Amino acid sequence: MPPESPASRPLLVVDGANVVGSVPDGWWRDRRGAAERLRDRLAAHGGPADGPFTGPYEIVLVVEGAARGVGPVPGVRVEAAPGSGDDLIAELARQAKGRPCLVVTADRELRRRVEAEGARCAGPRSVLPAP
Fold this sequence. Notes:
Elements (H helix, E strand, L loop, with lengths): L10 E5 H6 L9 H15 L12 E6 L12 E5 L4 H11 L5 E4 L3 H9 L3 E3 L9
Parallel strand pairs: 1-2, 1-4, 2-3, 4-5
Helix pairs in contact: 3-4
C-alpha cells in the first residue's frame, strides 16, 4: 500500500456529538452547523499535534441525530451513525485491529469500550482551539 493511502495512516475517530457538546457555544441551536464547523476544523488542522501517534491521520468524524447529513470534505470522512454513535465508534475501533487508532471523546463508557479493542483515547480539547 502506498504511504499516502489513508489505510496506512493512524486512524483518528472523532465522537462528533461529544466533542461539539463539550463547548457551550450554542451548538444545540444548530447541531448540523456545529458538526460542520468541527469537520472543517479537523480538515484544516488534522489530528492532535501531541497525540500518541505520528500523523497525518485518516480522520473519521462520527455524527448522529440532527447532525446526520453532514457531508465529507477532503481529509475528513463523515460517518452517520444509523443508531448510537457510540456503537459505530466502537465498531470502527474494532475494525482497526492492528492499526493505530485514536478515539477523541470524553465519554467514559465509550473510552472503556474502545480501549478494550486496542484503541487509545484523547479528550475533546485535543482537537479544539484553546479557550
